[in-house]
């Protein structure tokens, strides 16, 4: 079964594919600008956006193990690594 890292890879590939197909994105610099201007990407790992410094912001979730399953018990948005 795919894990969290595979899901992040999937989201990254999907995001880059979507952004790179925009007509105005014709270079790496324009790709970077498009990523930083993107309001939010809703992927399998949650919503993702970037700030002016290029830091990623994702919805973060607090999970609890119930039996053999994870259950979300609270949600919060924040900067990864805070």
Shape: elongated
Mean pLDDT: 83
What fraction strand?
A: 35-45%
Query: Helix fraction?
Result: 25-40%
Which stretches are poorly predicted, pLDDT < 50 over at least 5 residues? 77-82
Short description:
With about 80 residues, the chain is α+β, with helices and mostly antiparallel strands. The protein has two helices and four strands, in the order ααββββ. The protein is about 35% helix and about 35% strand.
Explain what this protein looks like in three dimensions.
With 82 residues, the chain is of the alpha+beta class. Helix content is 33%, strand content 37%. A four-stranded antiparallel sheet has the order 1-2-3-4. Strand 1 and strand 2 form a beta hairpin. It is elongated, with a radius of gyration of 15 Å. 1% of the residues are buried. The C terminus is likely disordered.
Keywords, please?
elongated, 4-stranded antiparallel β-sheet, 33% helix, 4 strands, alpha+beta, 82 residues, 2 helices, disordered C terminus
Topology:
Elements: H1 4-20, H2 28-37, E1 41-43, E2 46-50, E3 56-66, E4 69-79
